[in-house]
From TrEMBL:
It comes from Flavobacterium dankookense. The keyword Signal does not apply. One of its GO terms (molecular function) is GTP binding. The lineage of its organism: Bacteria, Pseudomonadati, Bacteroidota, Flavobacteriia, Flavobacteriales. Its cofactor is Mg(2+). This is Probable GTP-binding protein EngB. GO terms for biological process: division septum assembly.
Length: 198
C-alpha cells in the first residue's frame, strides 16, 4: 500500500466521541516507550504525525488518523507507565477497555512489544484480555535494529513459549519492525491492505 494521505482527525478520551464514519480501524497499543509513535511515523511516512516524546505516558488519548481517506489508524495511550497517578491510570484504562469493547469499527489491534525484552506480565495480561473479548490482533516486535538477527529469532521463540505458557495454542501473526531502518513497513501495510480488501 502506498500512503497518499495521513491526516490527524481527533483526540479524545471518550469512545462515543470517536469519528462516526464507518471506516475500518487499526489500533496501535503497547507499553510506554515501546516505539509506537516512531512506528506510526514510519508507517505513514511522516516525521511527526504521532508525537514521539521523551516523556512516557504523555499521550493519554485515543488519537484518530485518517489514512488514504479509507481507513483509520488509531494511536492508543501507552499503558503501564508507573509515574501516571493511580487515578489517571484507572481512567485511561477504562477508556481503553471501552474502546476495545465498544468500537465496532475496530478490525485489528496491533500490540507492540520491544523485541529486546523478556515477555512482560502486563503485555501478556493485555493479550489475554484481547483474546477473552475476541479482538483480532497481531504482535509487532519493535526496535529490531537493536539486536542481531539471530537474537531476533531466539527472542521471538522465547515470546512464543511465554504465550503458550499463557494458554495460547499458537503464536499469533507477528511482524518484526525497526523504525530506524524502515524494517517491516511493507509487510504491515500489505497486511492492512489485504484485510481492508476482504
Ligand atoms: P512511544 O512512547 O511508544 O511512542 O515510543 P517512541 O516512538 O517515542 O520511542 C521511544 C524511544 O525509542 C525513542 O527514544 C525512540 O527514538 C526510540 N525508538 C523507537 N523506535 C525505535 C527503533 O525502531 N529503533 C531504535 N534504535 N530506537 C527506536
Amino acid at each position: 500500500m502506498k500512503i497518499n494521505s495521513a491526516e490527524f482527525i481527533i483526540s479524545n478520551s471518550d469512545v462515543s466521541k470517536c469519528p462516526l464514519e464507518r471506516l475500518p480501524e487499526y489500533a496501535f497499543i503497547g507499553r510506554s516507550n515501546v516505539g509506537k509513535s516512531s512506528l506510526i511515523n514510519m508507517l505513514t511516512n511522516h516525521k511527526n504525525l504521532a508525537k514521539t516524546s521523551g516523556k512516557p505516558g504523555k499521550t493519554q488519548l485515543i488519537n484518530h488518523f485518517k489514512i488514504n481517506l479509507n481507513w483509520f489508524l488509531v494511536d492508543l495511550p501507552g499503558y503501564g507507565y508507573a509515574k501516571v497517578s493511580k487515578k489517571t491510570k484507572e481512567v485511561f484504562q477504562q477508556f481503553i477497555t471501552d474502546y476495545f469493547e465498544k468500537r465496532e469499527q475496530l478490525v485489528c489491534a496491533f500490540v507492540l512489544i520491544d523485541i529486546r525484552l523478556e515477555a512482560q506480565k502486563i503485555d501478556l495480561e493485555f493479550i489475554t484480555y484481547l483474546g477473552e473479548i475476541e479482538i483480532p490482533f497481531c504482535i509487532i516486535f519493535t526496535k529490531a535494529d537493536k539486536i542481531s538477527k539471530t537474537k531476533v529469532a531466539s527472542h521471538i521463540a522465547a515470546y512464543r513459549k511465554a504465550l503458550l505458557a499463557n494458554n495460547w495454542e499458537e503464536m499469533p501473526q507477528h511482524f518484526v519492525t525497526s523504525s530506524l531502518e524502515n524494517t517491516g513497513r511493507d509487510e504491515l501495510l500489505t497486511f492492512i491492505d489485504n484485510v481492508n480488501q476482504d
